[in-house]
Amino acid sequence: MIDADLAVLYGVTTKRFNEQVKRNIDRFPPDFMFRLTKNEMANLRSQFATSSLKDYGGRRYLPYVFTEYGAIMVANIINSRHAIEMSILVVRAFIRLRNILATHMELAQKISDLERQFKDKTLEHAMHINKIYKILDALMMPLPEPKKERIGFDTSKTRK
Fold this sequence. Notes:
The chain is mostly helical. The chain has helices at 3-10, 14-23, 38-48, 54-57, 68-77, 81-140, 155-158; strands at residues 33-35, 64-66. Helix 1 packs across helix 2 (14-23).
């Protein structure tokens, strides 16, 4: 989440929010928080179709972006009644989200297993079908004409 969005969630201004983060910067390793690049910010602005206000929408600095861990860590540094209430909600939301994702991962694994089983069975069935076609091809080949023996008395054998 972007710093401005988290600031709104915690009921503080973006400036105050970023001040608190900078005072506690040791709590935010790179996998908790990072700063957007100019290109990323331009891409983000174009995706949200924001007006082209000076540089970054009136901001002097590029925004910080917080991962799930960073958003939870912010709850420990913002000290207001509203921030405490929101931190509880944020933690619950992320735990619920994690549970939903875990359920989806289990479902994805089951689907993957079914696809693999289907593929294996399909290959097995294809082999059997090919055998059936070969047998049918052999059965449909015309049989050679059997040698017809003459019926009756053969005079060529008795004249010698």
